[in-house]
Amino acid sequence: MGMKKVLLSLLHDVVMISLGLFVMIALKKLMPLTKRGGFCNDFSIRYPSKVELIPSSVETTVFGLLIIFTVTIVEFLRCLDQRDWEYIVPSKYIVMVFRIEKSLVSMIFHGLILASIVFFGKMFVGRLRPNFIRICNTIPCDVSGYQDFECRKYDEAAFDARLSFPSGHAAIAWYAAAYIVLYVQYGVRCWPLVKALIEVAVISMAWFSSLCRITQNQHHPSDVVCSALLGLLFALLAYWNTSHSLPLPSSDENKAPVQRSRAPVHMINQ
Fold it and tell me: CA 125, 128, 137: angle at the middle one, nearest 5?
């Protein structure tokens, strides 16, 4: 790959990441919140408020590090394929770094677009969280009909209480888990039990994160289910776009010829 192609590839990656950041920042600055009302006797929004067990920053950091670690290890194993143990060509490592960079850029770009779509859904729908009444501390209203809830204090917590659908935690968790599963399943040829252990572990982490959002009264079950499906869809898109556009870690032209000693035919027949 020439220097010009390398620079163009890096420029493409910078533009795509910048575009994803621009979309997310623009939505947060310009998207208005839809303030939905409800019924005062609606018990689905009268659950008690609980301390958040897994903050979004912690979940994003953990899954992000897991993806970086997984992509790096898988590409290194691809570089050290069984056919190449005897002869390691330096150019293979260059291709390995290229594949890692492209995979992570694709993952980040699709993750930014996913986060933007989730934020748009939250602001556009404005669904009340299960603990809305407790957090909002609404002004007493008539239980006989539909009401436009007015919070006693408009702070960050009251604003966040109107952002139930979709669940950002569930979307990010299942996006990361599915991306890791796809990368491990189709990138590693050996160690099936280790692959199964990794896949079960990350799926369990995403499942636990999703359940926590329900048990902590942060989201309705339908919020979590729809968000998980959205995360799975974006993981498929991210992996598909990456796997069909990258070169193999090694090619026949980069391999050194393997010298094998062969016994004469008459010796084999004896």
Answer: 140
